[in-house]
Amino acid sequence: MANRLVLILLLVTPLAAQNQTEIRFRSLPDQVRMRQYMERLAARPHHIGSEYDRDNAEWILARFKEWGWDAKIETFHVLFPTPKERIVELIAPVKFTAKLLEPAIANDPSSTQQSEQLPSYNAYSADGDVTAPLVYVNYGIPADYEKLESLGISVKGCIVIARYGASWRGIKPKLAAEKGAVGCIIYSDPRDDGYYQGIVYPDGPYRNENGVQRGSVMDMPLRAGDPLTPFIGATKDAKRVTKEQSGLLTKIPVLPVSYSDAQPLLSALEGPVAPDNWRGALGITYRVGPGPAKVHLKLAFNWDVIPIHDVIATMRGREFPDEWIIRGNHHDAWVNGAEDPTSGMVALLEEARSIGTLVKEGWKPKRTLVYCAWDGEEQGLLGSTEWAEAHADELKAKAVLYINTDSNGRGFFGAAGSHTLEPFINGVAKDITDPETGLSAWKRVQLRRISEARTAEERSEVRSSENLKIGALGSGSDYTVFLQHLGVSALNLGYGGEDGGGIYHSIYDDVRWYTTFSDTNMAYGCALAQTAGTAVLRIADAEVLPYDFRSFASTVGTYVDELKKLLKSMQDEIRERNKQLDEGVYAAIADPREVSVAPKREDVPPHVNFAPLENAVDELKAMSEAFHKALDAAKKEGSLNATKRTELNRMMRMAERDLTHPSGLPRRPWFRHLVYAPGFYTGYGVKTLPGVREAIEQKDWKEAEAEIARAAGVLEKLAGQLEIAGNNVK
Description:
The protein has helices at 2-11, 14-26, 31-41, 51-66, 142-150, 171-178, 190-193, 243-246, 259-267, 338-360, 377-380, 382-390, 392-398, 422-430, 441-452, 456-464, 480-485, 511-517, 523-540, 549-582, 611-637, 642-655, 690-697, 701-729; strands at residues 70-92, 96-97, 122-123, 128-136, 159-163, 183-187, 215-216, 254-257, 294-315, 320-330, 367-374, 399-404, 411-417, 490-497, 676-678, 686-688.
């Protein structure tokens, strides 16, 4: 077989050879093997620091070596708190003590491994022992506190209870502390992922009354990674700050609970009836408080520095060994983690095995492939961040692209990432067969978007567009350090949308749940391996890296338009409210049981000069068009010699770096990308042109003008590089 593949590759054109390689690759991923990998990796709880987490790393290492990769484990030492005391009790007007326990289920064997399971908690919560009145704050996001203020309710000196959803969990205690609360409880409401959505586990996929969502509440909008080693890899001998100096720990104690533990707390509240959109699906009248419910919350943690284990496997490139295509998925979990992260990890493993098979048959990548199984993702992207910080100089010089996966499921293909790669990943998706429909993965998504379009104009645009729009990346998985700290182009890929559930970060995320209610036969795991692997092969062997700067320039133009609309809507809203106040108009709220405080007069936001950004986008669009026109002509004429290709690929590899600024974003210098970042008060959710957008949202007009100038500067820098590159390829 090896001689046959080599002969085929010698007899056909480079494009045909690439197609043959990809077709052969896509025939190799095996659903049965993926099921076997999942059963092995998710057989026992494997949080960081556990014996099975280390055992899994060793097993993954052995598989890479078996498949022909040069593989090793890199160890880092990170802060990892585990609970030694957890108490939540209602002490007035009645007594109730939360059980804080997810019970085993008879027909789910993994759920019985209680001696190995981490208890339900939020990592990097502060220690604390507080007793205070309770206030319900809905999702605990900025808009909810604005509503509380309009109701005349303060959370100062109180414990807040917020439901999961609408933002990343760490924003809830962060905002609560800023508003003066002394503690925070987060619960899963059945409206969001429980019985309101469907049948609950074990009979269905949704969260049962005892399910609890664990998770980190480290202040990751400030920076990711080990709290004690900012900006440097957490090697054993690294210089460490104290946990107080890190600035990433919550200021107040915070704990997650199930909805069975939350209901007695919420039932004891009085005060105004909660607004309509604050009401969940529990069989109670949702009220805001404060009181008469009074809660005692006590938390204490072991604060240990422990080793974590990244598995790094390399396949050296035959022509460009110093250009790296990096592919990653994490292997650690909160408990057994069949969906999160094993469903993505098994796809990565099948890619690696299949690539190893290609190499044995005679193929070898032009560029170096680096496959990574990260540890410590769940606590704060620890493994990926520490590895990238430790290798930062090398990555800045060599990294071409980082491709990430995490959880995977059944349904529709999804992609987000650098918009220079939008046409590229669209092209990949067109060559992947959706296992359920037989259509291409791309076509299935297009048809869904057509059906969901709100207007005829939107439907027409989706039908006629050669490429489907991909999302922008905020944070929440291992791409963060690559894109937003180092300026490495990144993609995050996965399938889903037809496998809703409620077992996220609970003991019930296990092989039984996954193979009963999600990707039951690993067909979409196979599709993910084919998709990500095809992307890896295609970019690894590209003569010219397939970045498209026209797509990026167009997308950034829409971001500028969004900022202008945001400012205008703020101006219009404040003008209208001031007009009503001047006229003595006070609109009564719909529910007479609510209490309301009249709004205050506010200055209308001033004019903000967007001209530098608009001019920079116009210049970038013009240079992008000119560059791609020159590049297409050079390809057609065959005038791209090896020297020109090398310099052209270097420019493309560095393009994302050009969009970063060494001083980073205001008040969070670790985040250096000026086009994409997680929001300061959204956590995972992306803010595009973040410095400008958040200055406008915070009504800091001087900072908005300064950030417009900085963002315009990086766009102009990229436009200048494109102009030079376009002239060089002619």
